[in-house]
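Moderator note: this is an archived Q&A kept for reference. The question asked for a predicted structure of one protein chain; the sequence and the answer are reproduced below.
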Amino acid sequence: MRIRTRPASRWALVGVAAAVAAAAAVSAGLAGVSGTRGDPSLRGVSKPVVVATAKTASFISAVSDTRRNRVYATWSISFSNNPDTRVYVAASTDGGRTFAKPVWLARDNGAGQSVVRVDGNGRVWATWTHYDLKHEDLLDPKQKYSNPSWQELAYSDDAGRTWSRPVDVPADHGLRHGSAFGALAVSPSGKKVSVFWIDYLPVFDPRVKPAGRDAGTYLAATSVDGGKSFGPVRKIVQTGCVCCEPFGLSLDGRTALLFRGWQKATVKHDLRDIKLTVAVPGGGWTAPVSVHDDHFLLHHCPSVGPAGAVDRAGLLHVAWWTGATGRAGYWYAIRGTDGTFGTPVEIEAHPSAPNENNATITLDGNGTVWTATVGHGDFAANGNVDTSPNQALVYTITGSGKPRLVKAATVDGSYPQLAAVPGAVVEVWANAGRLLARRLEVR
């Protein structure tokens, strides 16, 4: 059994990811730049290029290597006629103008939920959830809740053309029973690498007394030798949202994790606000603090996690969605030098989760914050599926703190991700069975 990429019910988590076609093609070069309709943030917007053909691609992740003017995108796909699931990564070495042919990571037929990061030396890192299809078939039907799955980690030293042999995380086979929604944090030197994942076994295993009706346990393993070996698995959070992808990053020289928490609130509802925890010496983690006390009550899977970006001054910028009564929408907040979060700013009001993907946030060379969401959600907070057409919306936030819609960057599609490069912000999104990218040329 596997975590769904498109939950179809209140907390439908297990099943094959709902994508339908393999990634394939290579993109062509950017041809021309369109007008910006007077937007003060942009000099122009390039025409989209096709990164890959990937129908209903899910878990899109994008990152930039600003020093080398490179962009990397990764995504998950599956097939309608067999249980295979795969992850691909595509690289641009010219700032998002063109993308190389996608690479099928590790030639893995049981993979999903990939994440990509870059360290200060230009090494590209990717982690994904591996599902052991062979052993899953051999499980006793009564043991199906203990689906064998774990995180895989690989890196590339040649701009994503070739990749190292994957490392299993964790190495202990006894802990490979219910891994999903991996996250990754890499130090600037590349020496320290932390892989996170959600253990969803307590939700389904009748032998384990659940910590909560919908709660998963957040785990991590850290390498201090550049990913060659990993230390013991550490429990970070006892109860967290079991269906929301966390976000790993480096903060104040330490490893940090943004995630959607879980706390029992009422008989019928759980509390699912965004939290931050930071690693401390000795392998421990700070008590999670709320980015904001939205008081988001729910007993379903919103299936959307937060995103964070750290600026040159060390301030953490966070974007997230909440379905909290009276404030449902997409929000933004800054963590100050004193470690506390300021008053959040509403970016876009909508009552349904923007997509089954993390939020996205990046900062351009001018220090302007860029973030993106969709005009409405794929899944409402009450679990109903929203199948109407969607648009990816891009916003900028400057020193004034007031979000501005970048109208010239609006496109049809979903799952938007942003990555800043010198002179531009690269927008990556999915639409009509293709993964697309374009440059938003910054003034």
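Archived answer notes: Confidence is low (pLDDT under 50) at residues 1-32, 137-142.
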